[in-house]
Amino acid sequence: MKDYEMVVGLEVHAELNTESKIYCNCRNAFGLEVNTQVCPICMGMPGTLPTLNEKVVEYAIKMGHALNCKINSVCKQDRKNYFYPDLPKAYQISQAEVPLCENGHLDIMVDGEEKTIGVTRIHIEEDAGKLLHDESFSGSLVDLNRCGVPLIEIVSEPDIRSSAEAKAYLDTIKSILQYINISDCKMQEGSIRCDVNVSVREKGAAEFGTRCEMKNVNSFSGAVRGIEYEAKRQIELLESGGKVIQETRRWDDAKGMSFTMRTKEDAQDYRYFPEPDLLTIVVDEEKIKALKASIPELPNKKVSRYVKQLGLSQIDATLIAEAVDKSKLFDECTALGKCSPKIISNWILADISKYSNDTGKSIIETPLTAQRLADLLAEVEKGSISNSAAKKVFEIILSDDKDPADIIKEQGLVQNSDTGFLEQLAKDILAENEKSVADYKNGKTNALGYLVGQCMKASKGKANPGIVKEIVTKMLTE
Amino acid sequence: MSIDIKHIAKLSRLRIEDEKLEKFEKDMENIVAMVDKLPEISDELTLDASNPMKLREDKAVPNKFTRDELIANAPKVQAGCLVVPKTVE
Amino acid sequence: MKLYEKTAFELSQMLKNKKCSAVELLGDVNERINNVEDKVGAYVTLNESAKSQAEAVDKAIADGREIHPLAGIPIGIKDNISTKGLRTTCSSKMLENYVPPFNATVAQKVADAGMVITGKMNMDEFAMGSSTETSYMHLTHNPHDTDCVPGGSSGGSAAAVAAGEAIVTLGSDTGGSIRQPAALCGVVGLKPTYGSVSRYGLVAFASSLDQIGPMGKSVKDVAMMQSLISGHDAMDATSKDIAYPDLLANLTDSAKGLKIGVPKEYFGEGIDDEEKQSVYNAIKLLEANGASIKEISLPSTEYAINTYYIIASAEASSNLARFDGVKYGYRAKDYDGLTDMYEKTRSEGFGDEVKRRIMLGTFVLSSGFYDAYYKKAKLVQRKISQEFSEAFSECDIIATPTVPSRAFKIGENIGDPLKMYYSDVCTVTVNIAGLPAVSMPCGKSSYKNMPLGMQFIADKFKEQTLLNAANAYENLVGGFDVISKAL
Ligand SMILES: [Mg+2]
Ligand SMILES: [Zn+2]
After folding, report:
1. What's the A147 CA to ligand 2 centre distance in angstroms?
2. Do B81 and A36 touch (CB under 8 A)?
3. In chain C, how many domains are there?
4. Candidate from C202, C237, C374 with C-beta closest to A273
5. Distance from the A62 Cα atom to the nearest Cα atom in chain B, whole angstroms
6. Of A411, A430, A457, which marks where a domain is finished?
7. Catalytic site residue C153?
8. How far is the CA of C213 from the centre of ligand 1 (A)?
9. Which range marks the domain in which residue C416 is found?
10. pLDDT: is C13 or A409 the higher one?
11. In a domain? residue C205
């Protein structure tokens, strides 16, 4: 078998979390009773007209900045014409010729390596309604609540070469959308969806192979499965002497297979033309600048910084960077310089994440401030409290909203690390346990554990076990 | 110029009865022959930035219409939904 | 003189001075409707609540409340303008039973002013036609000769004014649909500047060309109406946010100093001699009274009809795609699956002319043809606009015939779409360039004294200049004799 590589391009549709819909004042909300979030405009009643929501333009520009795009301050909207019951006007207002943003790129990290994926364009458009099907009913039911929910469509260049890259790209897009707070990215609500273009070619070939477009990919993990399936299908086809035909396929995630939806011959003719009900969109250059200034450090940049400058592993760096709340706490905590990034990362990914998962609370909403976490971890690193004591302090911070120093004092959790005191303690214990000392010297090294244990017991658990062990070992070998 | 009237009708979700097809075809060809007579202007269309669109403030307003009012004109409804022939097998 | 024969301006004074009541006025108009409507066929639907609207105005007057000058004036509204709770059919089988849950912005303004809505006026189906013969409902007859068409597509609106079945009406004009029937019925019709009147609630034919406008018996009447319906509307993104003058208060009646451009392209072969002559006579009368005349040239006029049919049909094919039997309107009885339902519904619900335009529009937008048709037409559109702009640097208004000839016979052109399209030859350029234009009577045909029409065109948002010129002419001829004596 020849050595193949896949060539993948992705089109991500993300619903924006604006208050109102893109072309009317209806509420942009999910999960409400059918056909209650509609008005004559988003229902496409005769004579109604669209008016463009300014937030939609702003949000798209923000995403454009985040993906290093050129922003077209003068652009327009176009109609994409097709008949379907979830599209009440029988055209979708979208952008064809001139999108709001184009020519960008996104840096992603795959297996510790950075890779740049080109972003062709980002444009604004309206979502369609929903069709509901029921076995017991011979027809389909149309719910128009989702009609006119604002979308941005992010189209990538065919730069993706593996399903791992596709996953990294999608995860990064999702975390950026959340970072700049323009989309809720709730997969189960369908607020972020993607179409996938896949072709394969022999490694090193200059030309692209024939591509297939896959629709109905409703989750990112589904996209990864779909890409792998489709690449495999195409390779097998080529290997058996067949040819890939250009077509649109439907991904069935439950079956783990894709099926032909329509071939190139009956491709849709969308008859795009400029939307005559809307005028030219002209965005002030100052506004474009201000939106750029509002973009925080993005997760992909954070991953790179965490790995290169702070010594985190890519996995840990990604886990922290992709969650807005975790990275906020991490960044604030490292900025205080009181403890190592590694211990902060360990705590955020273990105890703090567990607490967050168990309670469903974001860590930003709790009494655990960056200052308190840094103070606590500094004590651990200094050895003035034990790890198990630190866990106790952590719980009390969360339940009682107190500073760690006060908790340690109140609970008497300070470890004794005073070497003079500990040396005296060790001396006394060794004197009381001559037999064990002799055992150790005769090669029974587990006697060490017993002696350290006795020191701990005598100190009522407050002795720093690490230092005690050091002292006892030293005394035994002298 | 001959026009694939059946293809155009299909794209338009229209069906022209056989007995009318010929007349439609001829009319369309005449119309197209007429509109064909446009001069070549070797220029590009540009966007008119001099007349920018005023954008709407992002504000949701409570629905002024009840669902019943909005679907009152629909030919077929059930459970607050519009009904169409089944779209999936 | 019967009340229905008077102008809105005169009736407004009478109502204010309690010389008549709104209920009396409506009664007079209703009586006229009863007497002549079966010969004219101007209405699709009569408004059952007109009487209570008139009573409300009378009560307001009796209570001494401030009322709008147009309060109590009976008005007919073209049936493509949405009226809440009142059937709005576009004269199509597709919308035969459609009752909008909301008012078009203009309908709301009319209601807020206390005007009395008599009903909804017949039109060519979805405003596609020039004779009102494509209406699914019934024919409308020209009140001056009921064998003739009233023009179209606002044929019902024009015929109603000429027949005295409404005092003023609203029409819509995409390629001449207010001005052409106004000319053929001998009334005054104004097509306002694109963007000056909200299109919200006007069932779209060609969004970039459509504009609602008034029809009446005098320039004063359309001036009053235009001031009522114009203004910025946040619901229509193409509505222009500028200050709109009180056209009636600022109306002048002198031709002195008026610079009139006369474009030779509008007086060519296809225009009847009597039509040309009557416009020349009108221009000469203005010149004799202080206007100056300048021959101008608008060379791209010859491409206007082609450009118009491409742009208008392209937009129409998209605008009319929503009529699919799902949300409102007609749905075919029996069908097998979704596509069959769409095709049957649309084939049964639309008439032939609508289908022709939808298909032409689909064709010019379809893959491989867009650049050759739509894009080219948009370039010619820009050229036509530029030529008008240049012309307005040397004249205040442009005078042309409104129509190539007097009203034609019912059935005369209906089988020949191209011949029908040609009747818009003098009017489409105005829509293509987004300009305001008014048509007014300018003489009579040798055939049965049928009306002839003259069109004045002005630069964008210069409705005041336009109507001042029209008013000067109206004064020079001593007013227009609008009401038909033939009924
Ligand atoms: Mg899209
Ligand atoms: Zn809405």
Report:
1. 8
2. no
3. 1
4. C374
5. 16
6. A411
7. yes
8. 37
9. 3-260+392-476
10. C13
11. yes
pLDDT of residue A363: 81
Q: A76 — contact with chain C (CB < 8 Å)?
A: no
Same domain flag for A345 and A424: no
Nearest Cα residue in chain B from A144: B81
Q: Look up the domain containing A373 and give its range.
A: 323-411
pLDDT range class, residue B89, cuts 50, 70, 90? low
A170 in the same domain as A52? yes
Residues of A in contact with C331 (CB under 8 A): none
Kindly state whether residues A53 and A131 are assigned to the same domain: yes
pLDDT of residue A213 exceeding 70, the answer is yes
**Who among A88, A273, A276 is closest to C365 (CB)?**
A273
Give the strand order in the sheet containing C188-191: C43-46, C116-121, C74-78, C168-173, C211-216, C188-191, C437-444, C451-458, C397-401, C259-263, C292-296
The CATH number assigned to the domain holding A442 equals 1.10.10.410
Let me know whether A182 and A117 are in one domain. Answer: yes
Say if residue A284 is in the same domain as residue A369. no
Give this complex's ipTM: 0.97
Q: How far is the CA of A10 from the centre of ligand 1 (A)?
A: 12
Chains in contact with A, counting 3 or more C-beta pairs less than 8 Å apart as contact: B, C
Q: Classify residue C333: in a domain, yes or no.
A: no
Q: What residues of C are in contact with residue B74 (Cβ under 8 Å)?
A: 326-328
At A159 the pLDDT is 97
Q: Is C78 annotated as catalytic?
A: yes
Q: Please give the tally of structural domains in chain A.
A: 3
Chains that touch B (3 or more CB pairs under 8 A): A, C
Which one of C12, C82, C153, C239 is the catalytic residue? C153
Is residue C338 within 8 angstroms of chain A, CB to CB?
Answer: yes
Residues C100, A48: C-beta atoms closer than 8 Å: no
On whether both A169 and A69 belong to a single domain, the answer is yes
User: Residue C279 falls within a domain, yes or no?
Assistant: no
Rounded Cα distance, A58 and A108, in Å: 24
Whether residues A360 and A445 fall in one domain: no
Q: For the sheet with A130-133, list strands across it.
A: A130-133, A139-143, B81-85, B77-78
Instruction: Kindly state whether B85 is in contact with chain A, defined as any CB-CB distance less than 8 angstroms.
Output: yes
What is the DSSP annotation of C283-344?
HHHHHHTT-EEEEE--GGGGGHHHHHHHHHHHHHHHHGGG-SSSSSS---SS-SSHHHHHHH
Q: Is the pLDDT of residue A264 over 90?
A: no
Is A303 inside a domain boundary?
Answer: no
CATH number at residue C44: 3.90.1300.10
Q: What is the 3-state secondary structure (H, E, C) of A316-369?
A: HHHHHHCCHHHHHHHHHHHHCCCCCHHHHHHHHHHHHHHHHHHHCCCHHHCCCC
Interchain contact, A269 vs C366, CB within 8 Å: yes
Lowest-pLDDT range, A198-207, A261-270, B69-78, C473-482? A261-270
The residues, ordered by sequence, that sit 6+ positions from A282 with a Cβ below 8 Å of its Cβ are: A73, A74, B49, B52, B53
Phi, psi angles (nearest 5°) of residue A132: -110, 135
CB-CB neighbors (< 8 A) of A282 in chain B: 49, 52-53
Rounded CA-CA distance A76/A60 in Å is 14
Phi and psi angles of residue C256, each rounded to the nearest 5 degrees, phi first: -60, 130
Q: Cβ A90–C321 below 8 Å, yes or no? A: yes
> In chain B, how long is the greatest CA-to-CA distance?
56
Half-sphere exposure of C101 (CA within 13 A, CB side): 21
CA distances, B58 to each of A21, A66, A73, B45, B78 (Å): 8, 22, 20, 31, 32
Give residue A465's pLDDT.
82
Residue A304 lies in a domain: no
**Which residues 6-65 on chain B approach chain A with CB closer than 8 angstroms?**
11, 13, 47-49, 51-53, 55-61, 63-65
A316 domain residue, yes or no: no
In a domain, residue C303? The reply is no
